[in-house]
Write the structure tokens for this entry.
Amino acid sequence: MKKILLLALLAVFFTSCKSTSTTVSKKESKSENKYVVNHLIEKATDNIGVRYKAGGTSKSGYDCSGLVFTTFQSENITLPRSSYNQAKIGKVIKFNDAKKGDLIFFKTNRSKQINHVGLITEVNSSEIKFVHSSTSKGVIISSTKEAYYQNSFVQINRIVE
């Protein structure tokens, strides 16, 4: 009986220690994470000028979530394919706490749900710059100072701690 009780307690202990965080924690040092973030930004910005293509995940064309998906895949980080589902991954961060490498999400064109994502490349006191694939201009860098993005901003998620 004691053995069964001990096994039950151990089972509860080990299952309760499971992490529920969906952020990427490869137990890397801050400098290694800084390298990862810089590599992600470099990988995404290398695509500036590539045209927009719905469902696209390559140099022949990207949609917004395809750009983010393939960029993170280059660091062996698997994200969901859609911006709506990418917004459910990681830790939601306040606008003022945003950092390079975080994902920024929008509801554009009066959408009722998140439908656009970008990768933050630069953060200043009141402005965030992000690389993304726009339907009209392809892969570009935009700013939260632009009225369109100011009015459609939803949230920021940290994937790499």
